[in-house]
Amino acid sequence: MAIEHATDSTFKDMVQTEGVTVVNFWAAWCGPCKMFAPVLEKFERETNGSVKVVKVNVDENPATSSQFQIMSIPTTLIFRNGKLIFKEVGILPKAVLQQLTA
Fold first, then answer.
1. Which residues are part of the catalytic machinery?
2. What residues of the chain score a pLDDT lower than 50?
3. Coil vs helix vs strand at 36
4. Does the keyword Transport apply (predicted)?
5. How many domains does the chain have?
6. Model-level pTM?
7. CA-CA distance, 39 to 17, in Å (whole number)?
8. CA dihedral 33, 36, 42, 45 (to 10 degrees)
9. Domain of 27: which CATH number?
């Protein structure tokens, strides 16, 4: 699997699935987002498809960003079986992502 990109119109269907979905809210101009991207990519590769990773560009998808009250980026949300179980602002280490999605 690969990192998927959600839009305001596809977001709900992408997270309302069985299993774990990690959602990264980001923007192209965001320095910390650029630093977090390789961590997220490595995490996604190492899960071998057991965890879905979705990115949401806050500039292009204001409705989803507003729905989840995204005020700072990067922000990570984790859904389990379609239910929000975790929200954190900032760069998360890969080990933390692994622990939260286990």
1. 30, 33
2. none
3. helix
4. yes
5. 1
6. 0.95
7. 24
8. -40
9. 3.40.30.10
